[in-house]
Amino acid sequence: MAPESSANTPSTTENRGNIAAASGRRASITVELAERSYPIEIGTGITGELADVLRQEVGDLSHALVIADESIQTHWADPIIECLSSIDNVRVNNTNVPSGETTKSVEHLSRLWDWLLSSGADRRSVLFAIGGGVVGDLAGFAAASFTRGIRFVQIPTTLLAMVDSSVGGKTGINLSGGKNMVGAFWQPELVWIDTACLQTMGERDYLSGLAEVVKYGVIEDAEFFDWLCKNAASLLARDHAALQHAVTRSCQSKARVVRDDERETSGRRAILNYGHTFAHAIEATAGYGAILHGEAVSIGMQMAASLAIDMGLCDESLLTRQTELLTACGLPVQFADADADKMLPVMMRDKKVAHGKLRFILPTDIGNVQLVGDVDPAQVRSAIQAHR
Amino acid sequence: MAPESSANTPSTTENRGNIAAASGRRASITVELAERSYPIEIGTGITGELADVLRQEVGDLSHALVIADESIQTHWADPIIECLSSIDNVRVNNTNVPSGETTKSVEHLSRLWDWLLSSGADRRSVLFAIGGGVVGDLAGFAAASFTRGIRFVQIPTTLLAMVDSSVGGKTGINLSGGKNMVGAFWQPELVWIDTACLQTMGERDYLSGLAEVVKYGVIEDAEFFDWLCKNAASLLARDHAALQHAVTRSCQSKARVVRDDERETSGRRAILNYGHTFAHAIEATAGYGAILHGEAVSIGMQMAASLAIDMGLCDESLLTRQTELLTACGLPVQFADADADKMLPVMMRDKKVAHGKLRFILPTDIGNVQLVGDVDPAQVRSAIQAHR
Ligand SMILES: NC(=O)c1ccc[n+]([C@@H]2O[C@H](COP(=O)([O-])OP(=O)(O)OC[C@H]3O[C@@H](n4cnc5c(N)ncnc54)[C@H](O)[C@@H]3O)[C@@H](O)[C@H]2O)c1
Ligand SMILES: NC(=O)c1ccc[n+]([C@@H]2O[C@H](COP(=O)([O-])OP(=O)(O)OC[C@H]3O[C@@H](n4cnc5c(N)ncnc54)[C@H](O)[C@@H]3O)[C@@H](O)[C@H]2O)c1
Ligand SMILES: [Zn+2]
Ligand SMILES: [Zn+2]
């Protein structure tokens, strides 16, 4: 459902199945999921175009419920609210949630449910989630469950949320005993990405998001990997054109994977976990907060590459090239505190462990990965030790 | 997905598209929802047959999580647990929730989520909800949301749950500000109905469930309405054969409606609300607990019939026949405390009110209803006053 005016004008450099240039500057990607299909619109400084796109993509809009991360309310939510309020006959309600992972809790979910009810939300209302992955996941699940599901729009403001969490319909919260244990698959009506938001991000959070961008190159887009190698400096400088390309290409990757395996049933979606089994073990053993998710993913991809080489799945050059790119992106490629004795037990409890057997997404060459089951723990141990 | 051995042996009296006799005594109905289709198995004293049916219908079962209403644990949950525990390689966990509507809360949902996590539930686990609509709705939503959805089995133990809440996939909880405001459409793998459970029900709760049974006759099964008129006394006596027929026929009605409108998008599912706009207003104005849901539905159907007559949609005989049947079922057909001045404002706030216009499901003759929009409040007032 790309805007009609542009569906037939694919941009020359970025056309790979599901992408078209939506306007002079805006790119439009469709997440193809039959009656649940939706567009991802990507541009810089595009708030002025939102009202038109909402009319085309969301249709009936009389009540907008805006949930924003409190730290970006003034900078990035207020202009959106102003735009929504300027649309004829649209009633707008707004609330905030605190920044940080602890906001993805039952308590904040419950508070949002009550707020939706007291705001007079019903099945025709549309929820807008503005912020990083925390707000998208929490508000997305509130949308999935309020009156058994209302429509919602993702407006991601962090790099990780733009290239990963806002696309694909995974929503949810944490329980005190485990991350992302509760939630729903609930697709948005629209993902609205204004890369201008990235200019206010802290450096470490920003770089952390780049790890997921690099991931797409390794798992399924070799051409993009090459582009990243040439343009890492522009990305570090947060150059608008570079960001537009990198976010677009990443969303395109994610959209393809999600299209092929919306609910994680065929196994295809698992390729997005490249580096993540190691990363989760690093995050868990480093103590929460000591290392950012993207940093752990960067190191985890290095460990996965080493494991793949050790198992004869790919050659050394893959690790060399990945190391160069991650380093050029300002990401860590080793972790002095990595402790195999602590990480292995965590990995054995991971959701991706079937019947006690370690499974990994491992690269065969740049742009290709495969799921490898029953991996020898001794080899996993060596892979960890290769990057400390 | 009816058991293979029986799919081709429809019983002679009960075959109407989606029903077949599953065994000598057990009836089997399929809720036809493409890849989400599931059977409803109905019989008396059939716990001994559950293990076989689970093997056929649920397949991979290694971890069963049983959530039961505490008041029926000993009588009706323990035998099920014993059966589950006797299946090879099945691990069983069990917890209780208190009886009563207040259990459908965020607090109990949160407790169940934590319990699922601490019990080691994962995507391959299967949840069993044993009890009335309260347990089915609450545990069903826990199943819908835990790790974004695990399989579950409905084992309803009240008449209302057997003929209504356990079939159709509506799950959810109440917020302090409103009933059923949060939830999911999440279909079970199997609905297992042992009508023997009805023998321990309190008289008032049991009769209340009969109102929904009568409802199916009026909204879409005239033949069943006639059968009910002839067999009301047997139902009052809780005769096994009569119950088997009445529950089967009701589930068949519900299954047809749900098949045609799984997520309440086409409008067809709204016919299940016959009598309910009045009923909700009666329940709200009578003060919670003063009147049972089914009692209010009985009176609400009477008001709806009067409204239909007043609007020239059906003739007087419909009301006469409905009154006779409801009375024969021991249900109230009028409500001295009905107060139109209080009920009308509640009805205007009902979810079924579109743009401030009163809409009702009204009968045209026994077995047929239609959605009527923009009803004159003065006529609604007369309909209320006709039954006080
Ligand atoms: N749903 C999915 O598919 C999926 C995928 C990956 C990750 N996630 C989830 O995403 C979450 C992480 O997302 P995140 O990294 O965006 O975290 P986040 O939402 O906590 O944002 C990180 C920080 O950036 C701040 N921030 C947001 N936008 C900003 C901006 N434009 N300028 C300055 N600061 C800004 C936030 O206040 C926060 O402090 C995790 O909870 C993770 O589980 C979900
Ligand atoms: N999901 C749906 O489609 C749907 C449809 C209709 C109603 N509902 C919901 O169902 C709920 C009402 O269901 P209900 O009437 O079953 O209420 P309930 O679950 O509260 O059960 C009524 C009473 O009967 C007791 N009980 C249960 N089984 C018994 C047995 N075999 N013997 C003796 N006592 C027994 C319970 O402890 C309770 O006290 C409401 O919350 C309503 O919102 C849901
Ligand atoms: Zn990640
Ligand atoms: Zn009802």
From TrEMBL, chains A, B:
First-level EC class: lyase
UniProt protein name: 3-dehydroquinate synthase
Names of required cofactors: NAD(+); Zn(2+); Co(2+)
Pathway(s) it belongs to: Metabolic intermediate biosynthesis; chorismate biosynthesis; chorismate from D-erythrose 4-phosphate and phosphoenolpyruvate: step 2/7
Binding site for NAD(+): 99-104, 133-137, 157-158, 170, 179, 197-200
HAMAP family on file: DHQ_synthase
Function, in words: Catalyzes the conversion of 3-deoxy-D-arabino-heptulosonate 7-phosphate (DAHP) to dehydroquinate (DHQ).
Record's subcellular location: Cytoplasm
Domain 3-dehydroquinate synthase C-terminal intervals: 209-353
Keywords of this entry: Amino-acid biosynthesis, Aromatic amino acid biosynthesis, Cobalt, Cytoplasm, Lyase, Metal-binding, NAD, Nucleotide-binding, Zinc
Domain 3-dehydroquinate synthase N-terminal: 96-206
Membrane-spanning intervals of the chain: none
Residues that hold Zn(2+) according to the record: E212, H276, H293
Cellular component annotations (GO), alphabetically ordered: cytoplasm
Entry's cofactor comment: Binds 1 divalent metal cation per subunit. Can use either Co(2+) or Zn(2+).
Region of interest (Disordered), residue spans: 1-21
Alphabetical list of Gene3D superfamilies matching this protein: 3.40.50.1970, Dehydroquinate synthase-like - alpha domain
Catalyzed reactions per annotation: 7-phospho-2-dehydro-3-deoxy-D-arabino-heptonate = 3-dehydroquinate + phosphate
Family, similarity comment: Belongs to the sugar phosphate cyclases superfamily. Dehydroquinate synthase family.
EC number: 4.2.3.4
Keyword Lyase: yes
GO molecular function: 3-dehydroquinate synthase activity; metal ion binding; nucleotide binding
Biased composition (Polar residues): 1-16
One GO-annotated biological process of the protein: amino acid biosynthetic process
